[in-house]
Every structure is written in structure tokens, then in C-alpha cells.
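Problem statement: downstream parser choked on a complex file, so we are re-checking the raw output for the zinc ion run. The parser issue turned out to be on our end (a line-ending mismatch), but while we're here, posting the original submission so the record is complete.
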Amino acid sequence: MRAKDQSHETHFLKLLKSREHVLRKSLHSLIHGIELVETVSTHDVYDFKDLAGAIHQDNINHFSITRMEDELLQIDEAQKRIESHLYGSCLDCGEQIDLKRLESMPATSFCVNCQTSFELAKKMC
Ligand SMILES: [Zn+2]
């Protein structure tokens, strides 16, 4: 059982690392994209529509960056949980998180049930 646990952890560690790599790459290009937009909006705007478009895109990029930074933090936390052999258990109820869920969202810290009730609670606020 121990050996199986270990390969399971190695598998998810690999998933997390590759997700982290993709995120860091996109984050890098997004940040450079924003620098570009800022240059355009201060120097090259001949049309209000252009500026609005640039600002709109810029807002989307800022939103994506925040989301990516959040996910990177979650990935970091998940890697720590792997190191301390706590990975795969829901942080709230302690139940085993569904493997399919972990495969698609390796950085998740909660089972479907807890995640759903958090989201419901958030909507009510
Ligand atoms: Zn749970």
C-alpha cells in the first residue's frame, strides 16, 4: 500500500509541476501583454474606441493574472500537502477527494461537497 501511495503522490506532483509551468508561462506573457497595452494607451491612441478596447482587454488580463496567481498559490499548498502526505484529503471534512476531481484539478483542497457548499455560501453573501 505504501509503494502505491508513493507513486500516487509522484503522479500528482508531476501534474502540479506541469500545471505550474504552464501557468508561469502564461502569466509571463500576460504581464508582457499588459505592458504593451499600457504603451499603446498612453502613446498611440487616436480613437476613443481603441482606448476602450485596450482598457477592456487590460481588465481581462488583470483578472486572469489574479486567478493564475491564486492557482499558483494553491499549487504551492498542494505540493506542501504531498510532502507531508496529506494530499488528496479534503481540508474541510477530511474525506478522500475523488480521484477524477484531482486529475482535472490537482491543486484543489476540497471535495466536491465542501466546494459546492462554499460556493453556495459565497453567493449568499
Ligand atoms: Zn469535504
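For whoever reads this later: The pocket of zinc ion is lined by residues 90, 92-93, 95, 110-111, 113-114 (CB under 6 Å).
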